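Hi R.,

Here's the chain you asked about this morning:
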Amino acid sequence: MRPYRLKILRFDPSKDSNPHWQVYQIRMGEYERLLDGLIRIKGEIDGTLTFRRSCAHGICGSCAMKINGKNSLACQTLAKDLPEETVVEPLQGYPVIRDLVVDMGEFFRKNDEVMPYLINPEPPPDRERLQSPEEQQRILQSITCIMCGSCTGACPSYWLDRQYLGPSALLKAYRFIFDSRDRATKERLRKILHEHGLWRCHTIYNCVEVCPKEIDITYHIKALKRLALREALRIRQG
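And here is the predicted structure, written out as C-alpha cells:
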C-alpha cells in the first residue's frame, strides 16, 4: 500500500459560488483503481464527495473524469500508474452538477439526433439480418463505444461551439451509415451535414487520445467526410 494525495475539484451549487480544491490523503495497493480510492474517501473520510460509478469494469462509462489533465475512466486507472499527487476534475466541456458529476443531457440528445438505431423498411427475414465478416469488421470499432463522453469533452471544436454534434454523435452516425443492413444513409447524412455538424471536426485527434476503448474516432469521421463528398459529387453530376 502506498500513500497518495488526491487533489479533487469540488463544487456544490447549493453552497459554493465557485469550484475549489480539496486534498485527501489515502493509501492504495498498486492494482487498486482510482475508483477504489474515491469510494474509500466517500465511505471512510468524506461522505459528501460526489461522483458517478456503476459497473466498475470499463463498460458503462459512468466514471469518466479528468485525471491528471486527461479524460479517463477512474475504474481503468490503476494506482501503480499514478503519481503521488493525482489531480481529479470533472469532464471538461459539460455543466457541473456537483463535484465530479456533470450534466450529460445535451450529450445524449446530440447522439439521439443522428438516429442511433437500425432503419430497414424491408420485410424482416425469418431469422437475423445477415452481414459478412468483412461488413461487420467495418463497423466493429464504432460498436465498442461506451458513451462515456470523454471524446466530446476533450474536443476543442466542442469547447468553442456547444451546438456542434461532437465526435461521439458522429461516431454513432458512422456506426449505422456504414452498417450493411441499414437503409437510412441519406437521412443520417442530412442529420450531420449542417453548420454545427460533420465539417466542424478539424481533425485534432484529442478524441482518439482519450478514448478508453482506443477507437480511432477521427478515422471514422474522415470516412464520413469522404462519403459526404462522394454523395455531393454524385448529385452534382446528375
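One quick note: The mean pLDDT is 96.

Cheers,
M.
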